[in-house]
Amino acid sequence: MAFLSHNAQKVQEALLAHGLDLEVVELSASTRTAVEAAQAIGCQVAQIVKTLVFCGLLSGNGLLILASGVNRVNEKTIARHFGEPIARADADFVRQITGFPIGGVAPVGHLQPIPTFIDQDLFLFNEIWAAAGTPHAVFRLTPANLVKITAGKVVKIV
Predict the structure, then answer these.
(1) Longest dimension (CA), the chain
(2) Alpha carbons 111 and 135: distance in angstroms, whole number
(3) 2 pLDDT exceeds 70?
C-alpha cells in the first residue's frame, strides 16, 4: 500500500478498525465533486457516495447524509427523519465535527459520532465509492459496508 496523506491514513485506519479490508487510494485528479470523482475513477456518478453535512436548526447537532452522486437531498424529508428542521452546514462546522474539509468528508473517521442517513438508491449498485478524507482520496465499498461502518439508517432522501 502506498504512503497516504494524514487524513487519508486516518480513514484507512478507521476502515481497518471496522474489520474491513478496504483500500484508500489517492488520485492525482480531483474527487471534490461527485462528477469529478466519477470521472477520476471511471464509474457512474450515481455510484459516488456524496457526503453531506447538515446542522439541526434547533439542537445545533450535526447530521451526515450519504447520498448517491446524482440525487439532491430533500431537506424536508430528512428533517422529518431527524426530528427537527435542518440546514446545510458551513465549512467550519463540517471540519469541527468531522475533522475533514468539504470535498473530502469520509463516511468514517470523524472527530465525534454523527447520526447518519444513507440514500437507499446506493443499494442499486454492487460497488460504490466514497471520499477518504481529502479532495483526492477515495475508497471502494459495497452499500452493506457503508451501513456497517456508519451504523446509518437507510432512507429515501429524494
Answers:
(1) 44
(2) 18
(3) no
